[in-house]
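Per reviewer request, we include the raw input and output of the structure prediction for the construct analysed in the revised manuscript.
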Amino acid sequence: ESVDPQTREKIATSDFWQYDKESIADLGLMTYGYQTVEQRMTYSGDLMSPLSRMLGDTKNIALKTFRLIFKICVDRSRQYLPFTKIRKLIEILMNNSAEIKDECFLQLIKQTRDNPYLDPNTNEWKLMAVLASYVTPSEYFIYHFLNYLNTIFTEEKFEDARIWAMFILQRTLATNKNTERMVLPLKEEIIAIEDRKKMKVEVNFMNG
């Protein structure tokens, strides 16, 4: 799939790091000793507070999504990610606000940046691709998210990360264009996304 010139220009001019400087929770940077947003967005196994500014129940849901992300990605011996947990995460995102979806994508960006466990396994990239196939970042964050993926595609040295970044960019654009799904996926759909392959659907016509 090609990206039309207008969309490509919007992606290129929506600087992800500028968005983060304006949107990442400053209190979190102070509390956990991170001097810059870049440090805050670098991989760590712990996340004690949301990356963006959240309060009350929204904050609790955001932390729940992080725990699910960790449980989904932690086992690097599996060929495919745990289907039940992925469905649970997708269900949470489908039933919550755009703010929660943005936070989840930010958490996955954090887990893919300087992650020592990514090569050769790419669980976090796989999970990002799956989520982007069913839900999208908000209208305020989507082009900054795509800008980040485009930067990975053009500058990352790890070849598999570049391939995943472009795949996720295309999935995000397709989901945004076609609107988000409201029906939970089948296992075969998830596997097809993890394999970066189109899903085969058998159709039988009743011609009398």
